[in-house]
Design brief:
The protein has about 350 residues and is α/β, with parallel strands linked by helices. Helix content is about 30%, strand content about 20%. The N terminus is likely disordered. The structure holds guanosine-5'-triphosphate (GTP) and magnesium ion. The site of magnesium ion has 6 residues, from helix 4. Its EC number is 3.6.1.-.
Length: about 350
């Protein structure tokens, strides 16, 4: 740690966020000899006055901290991210929040039972490409599935080029295929609905029970939200896995890049539409509708594309409004004259 030498003998360092609770963060201060686990809180003056929701630290973030002699740690700054997932802020008008950061791979976890859903896979893929990391589809519960190849083929056709691994975390079958995405310095984040087996998968990777798991409902395979907060688990081989609570609905955000990659087939067809601003409804010369008519493009896929596109546009508008509001609020706090003007407006 770098000694600042001031009166309170504070020291500054960088740390990794390993879990987020309501207002408490679990952090790991990486040091030459051994890593230290600490609890930390945000420096309110920095986060609540100057920065918006996006900058609030999340699991996987590297942060600059300050510690005092008692071992209390204050988070001063979130360092730039290489990849990140966001979700809409539950408070209307507030900027979106980061869910996980700085991962290399996104493991999209679906079980080969009632949970399997192609529209959800599109949504997950869009969010994964948008995050800046590489998606890998993990199909779980192979030991319970009579025809795993059926599901593998469906994913391969829907997401050409995306790796698919069919595994059983209970028997260990297929787990060896996952190893190529792990290793010292690698970070993966798991995404998937409650009950698909994310935590069981983490335990299998770890070789011991580090996460609680819970039984699913027999009739529809739905889980019971056993994992309640995001947590990073350090595997014996030096890789890091972020387990998340089951998210059935994951927003795609302003997902231009994610949409382009996930629906590259539709984007490619759209190049051949007669009108550049074709909405692929009833326009003459629409190459996308033509592909639906002659069976080259499943109608389900086009409908889902339009749905996610509309969602992305809505998210973009929402974000722009929230960002303007945040800017005004920062300016108001920093500039008392403007503050008076705002109050008068
Ligand atoms: N047979 C079998 N059961 C599995 C497998 N993976 C998970 N399960 C079971 O599925 C149920 C749900 O597993 P969890 O690991 O708790 O699921 P989760 O995705 O972490 O769920 P949340 O924490 O609620 O998001 C448990 O009863 C597990 O034992 C598998 O590969 N084979
Ligand atoms: Mg879990």
């Amino acid at each position: 740690m770098e000694h600042t030498g001031n009166k309170t003998e504070n020291t500054k360092a960088t740390a990794l966020i390993t879990a987020v609770h309501r207002e408490r963060y679990e952090i790991l201060v990486e040091q030459e000899t051994s890593d230290t686990k600490l609890n930390a809180r945000l420096k309110t003056g920095v986060y609540y006055q100057d920065k918006g929701g996006e900058a609030f630290p999340t699991v996987g973030d590297r942060v600059r901290i300050q510690t005092n002699r008692c071992g209390d740690a204050l988070i001063l700054e979130t360092l730039p991210r290489t990849s990140v997932f966001y979700r809409e802020n539950p408070t209307p008008g507030m900027e979106r929040q980061a869910v996980a950061a700085n991962f290399d791979y996104v493991f999209l976890v679906m079980s080969m039972n009632h949970d399997f859903n192609q529209n959800r896979l599109d949504r997950y893929l869009t969010a994964a490409w948008e995050s800046g990391a590489t998606p890998v589809v993990i199909l779980t519960k192979k030991d319970l599935c009579e025809e795993p190849e059926y599901y593998v083929n469906l994913v391969e056709r829907q997401a050409p080029g995306v790796a698919v691994c069919a595994v059983s975390a209970v028997t260990g079958e297929g787990m060896e295929h996952v190893q190529r995405y792990l290793g010292a310095g690698k970070t993966v984040v798991l995404l998937g609905s409650s009950g698909v087996g994310k935590s069981t998968f983490v335990n299998a990777l770890c070789g011991e029970t580090v996460m609680d798991t819970g039984a699913i409902r027999e009739d529809d395979s739905k889980g019971r939200h056993t994992t309640t907060y995001r947590q990073m688990i350090l595997l014996p081989d030096g890789s890091r896995v972020i387990d998340t609570p089951g998210m059935r609905v994951l927003g795609v955000g302003d997902a231009k890049c994610g949409m382009d990659t996930t629906f590259s087939d539709i984007e490619e067809l759209a190049q051949h539409c007669r009108f550049r601003d074709c909405r692929h409804e009833k326009e003459t010369g629409c190459a996308v509708q033509e592909a639906v008519r002659d069976g080259r493009l499943p109608e389900r896929r086009l409908l889902n594309y339009k749905k996610l596109l509309a969602e992305a546009a809505h998210a973009k508008r929402r974000e722009e409004t929230a960002r303007k509001k945040q800017l005004r609020s920062v300016e108001r706090k920093k500039n008392p004259v403007r503050k008076k003007q705002y109050e008068a407006e």
